[in-house]
UniProtKB/TrEMBL annotation:
The keyword Transferase applies. It holds the Pfam family Glycos_transf_1. Belongs to the glycosyltransferase group 1 family. Glycosyltransferase 4 subfamily. One of its GO terms (molecular function) is glycosyltransferase activity. This is Colanic acid/amylovoran biosynthesis glycosyltransferase. Gene3D superfamilies: Glycogen Phosphorylase B. Keywords: Glycosyltransferase, Transferase. PANTHER family: COLANIC ACID BIOSYNTHESIS GLYCOSYLTRANSFERASE WCAL-RELATED, GLYCOSYLTRANSFERASE. It comes from Listeria rocourtiae. Residues 214-378 form the Glycosyl transferase family domain.
Length: 401
């Protein structure tokens, strides 16, 4: 089966959930190609090299500056003025056309029927496919992850996805919450199917929890240093716990625009030495950090611009190992973490609530912690196993219309 993956950036180190699908299809013997809107420089996941994915990807290289965009529009207009005008139809496609994605990507996917299946990640790339070809004999799917359901709609308006909803593309929100949202925006019930992201259970050996915490209680948070990750809440909780005499330290794995602000916060709260910012680490280093951590934190919240999480893969990885996890009642996270069953959930954007839950977990009996650990492993195995999920997706791709 010839399959095209359409993504926004590649190879994005933080998007292992997309990589897991690509490698799963390759392992099953399918012919995979990738179309990415832009290239990401920096550290890459080992599987990118192992599977030779850079040889399978084509970059559209969408320009960012207005000047560069005008040059590209002019070039296209000279070659094909009628099609250029069609793909820059503001009245039909809204402000999305100013990104130039439809105009610049068309030559790479002008005839989508050359593929047996096309899998787009993020609503904007599904919208791109629908603008270029509303109907196709090819099985086409688009995954909705988070910001594409919240911030993207906030930016472009609730009508932005109408061309997509009117097309033959199947919508695959990664949580029940996002399924509800896309239906509210106008998607037809029969075109929406919830399809979780998942993790490779073969890569995660369950841990044996110690009967009591180490002398220093290691808190760990993994994710981009952005507002929605609630890292400032975790830092505040660390300071509160230290003031109460708890020997806690917080390690933050990731990078992003909030780094300097967060470092300044840690210093102002007197926990500069107890809050460690590592930047992005290799997958091996991340797994080693998860192994050493006492408690995994993910205090996610809604950002001011409306941006929200999907279901963080870092939480799936921690739970797959049977680690103790504390997160928030945010987005699709409660579909993964069930309060007092396989983890704890706090009210989002509330440092006192997070502090209380960390205290509760520290004081929890060994019997309850061990039970929670077993439940964590089982939950991921039952609902977030990438092998099972990939097999289901392949079966959908192979269904003939």
């Amino acid at each position: 089966m010839k399959v095209l993956f359409v993504v926004s950036t590649f190879p994005a180190l933080s998007e292992t959930f997309i990589l897991n699908q690509m490698t799963g299809f390759l392992d099953a013997g399918h012919d995979v190609t990738i179309l990415a809107m832009s290239k990401v420089n920096g550290k890459a996941h080992p599987d990118v090299v192992r599977y030779g994915l850079m040889d399978k990807v084509t970059f559209v290289n969408v320009p960012k500056s207005i000047g560069q965009k005008l040059v590209r529009v002019t070039q296209h207009f000279v070659k094909n003025p009628i099609r250029t005008v069609q793909l820059l139809n503001y009245w039909r496609y809204g402000k999305f056309i100013f990104s130039l994605r439809p105009l610049l990507a068309e030559k790479y996917i002008k005839n989508q029927s050359t593929y047996d299946a096309i899998i787009a990640h993020y609503g904007s790339n599904g919208l791109l496919l629908s603008i270029l070809e509303s109907e196709s004999v090819t099985n086409r799917f688009v995954f909705f992850h988070g910001n594409d359901v919240t911030g993207f709609v906030e930016r472009f308006g609730s009508e932005i996805y109408q061309p997509l909803f009117q097309s033959t593309i199947t919508l695959l929100p990664i949580s029940r919450l996002w399924a509800k949202k896309v239906k509210e925006y106008g998607a037809a019930e029969h075109r929406v199917r919830v399809h979780h992201m998942g993790v490779d259970l073969n890569k995660f050996t369950p841990v044996t929890l110690p009967s009591q915490f180490e002398e220093t209680i290691q808190l760990l948070l993994i994710g981009r240093l952005t507002e929605k990750k609630g890292i400032d809440i975790a830092i505040s909780s660390t300071a509160r716990l230290r003031s109460k005499g708890y020997p806690v330290e917080l390690t933050v794995i990731g990078d992003g625009e909030k780094k300097q602000v967060l470092m300044a916060q840690a210093e102002a709260l007197g926990v500069k030495k107890q809050v460690h910012f590592t930047g992005w680490l290799t997958q091996t280093e991340v797994q080693q950090s998860i192994q050493k951590a006492s408690i995994i934190l993910q205090p996610s919240r809604v950002a001011e611009n409306g941006d929200m999480e999907g279901i963080p893969v870092s939480l799936m990885e921690a739970l797959a190992k049977g680690k103790l996890v504390i997160s928030t009642y945010h987005s699709g996270i409660p579909e993964l973490v069930e309060h007092e069953y396989n983890g704890l959930l706090a009210v989002e954007n509330d440092a006192m609530a997070l502090t209380h839950h960390i205290e509760s977990m520290i004081r929890m009996t060994d019997t309850n912690r061990q039970r929670m650990s077993r439940n964590a492993i089982q939950k991921v195995a039952d609902e977030f196993n990438i092998e099972t999920l990939n097999q289901r997706l392949m079966e959908m791709c192979e269904v003939k219309g």
